Design the sequence.
């Protein structure tokens, strides 16, 4: 072998060098995979921690004192805006009063009328001095008088459109029955009022899991067609508690912050000092 060939042969890595290089590359790849797995695990643990904190914040808020403080049948009777507000709406017999009672852990905070479609007023409840819950009249009951249905084109629409403290409307749909024309009409009204609303399926314990899954998918497809609809849809049961802690956490996100235990947090905004009006049932 001449000198030039010998020099060229010396430039080629030996078999052991090649194996060592491959082993190094494999180790680097394994280290990268391990680092990525550790990062994903850390992100997952952090997400679990944040969600646990949200659920606890919702539990604490709705474990607080909740009191009825006002009722209004006309726009000029509305209380002055104060705390952030969440309104509950739905067809008569959708289980609205039962859901509000289940959220707050009370049996008779919100009372259903014995005659569906009869309650024609907005009822306001102060939740722990941090959030106002607004119980809206039911809509769409077949036997309701025409003037009752018209409330949703009058007082209810004006309240929704002009209330600066209204953060969200929780629109309840009965998971056991098909969507009604009145539900779609109210969704369009909420779109026109430019009020964020969230669909919540009620009475989920009354349907089979497969049926509930299809209802949930249909509701998700529906919200994508409505500009004011919140993207998440919750399935709930006031009987079993399904979805309740998640809904509490969602609504707690809209409330005033809880007072700092050291007295340096944001001051709690009180509900307007008003003389309570007894609800007309």
Sequence:
């Amino acid at each position: 072998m001449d000198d030039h060939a010998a020099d060229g042969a010396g430039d080629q890595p030996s078999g052991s060098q090649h194996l060592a290089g491959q082993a190094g590359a494999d180790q680097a790849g394994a280290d990268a995979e391990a680092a990525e797995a550790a990062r994903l695990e850390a992100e997952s643990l952090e997400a679990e921690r944040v969600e646990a904190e949200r659920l606890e914040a919702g539990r604490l808020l709705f474990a607080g004192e909740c009191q009825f403080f006002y009722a209004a049948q006309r726009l000029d009777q509305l209380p002055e805006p104060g705390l952030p507000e969440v309104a509950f709406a739905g067809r008569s017999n959708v289980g609205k009063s039962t859901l509000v009672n289940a959220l707050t852990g009370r049996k008779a905070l919100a009372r259903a009328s014995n005659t569906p479609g009869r309650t024609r007023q907005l009822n306001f409840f102060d939740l722990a001095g941090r959030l106002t819950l607004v119980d809206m009249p039911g809509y769409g009951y077949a036997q309701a008088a025409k003037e009752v249905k018209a409330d949703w084109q009058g007082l209810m629409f004006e309240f929704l459109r002009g209330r600066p403290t209204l953060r969200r409307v929780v629109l309840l749909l009965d998971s056991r029955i098909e969507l009604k024309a009145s539900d779609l009409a109210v969704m369009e009204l909420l779109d026109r009022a430019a009020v964020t609303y969230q669909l919540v399926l009620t009475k989920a314990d009354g349907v089979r899991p497969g049926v509930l899954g299809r209802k949930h998918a249909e509701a998700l497809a529906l919200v994508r067609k409505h500009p004011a609809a919140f993207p998440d849809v919750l399935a709930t049961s006031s009987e079993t508690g399904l979805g309740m802690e998640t809904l509490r956490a969602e609504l707690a996100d809209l409330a005033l912050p809880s007072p700092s235990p050291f007295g340096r947090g944001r001051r709690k905004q009180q509900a307007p000092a008003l003389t309570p009006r007894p609800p007309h049932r």
Observations:
- Residues 58-252 form a domain with the Rossmann fold fold (CATH 3.40.50.300).
- The longest helix spans residues 15-62.
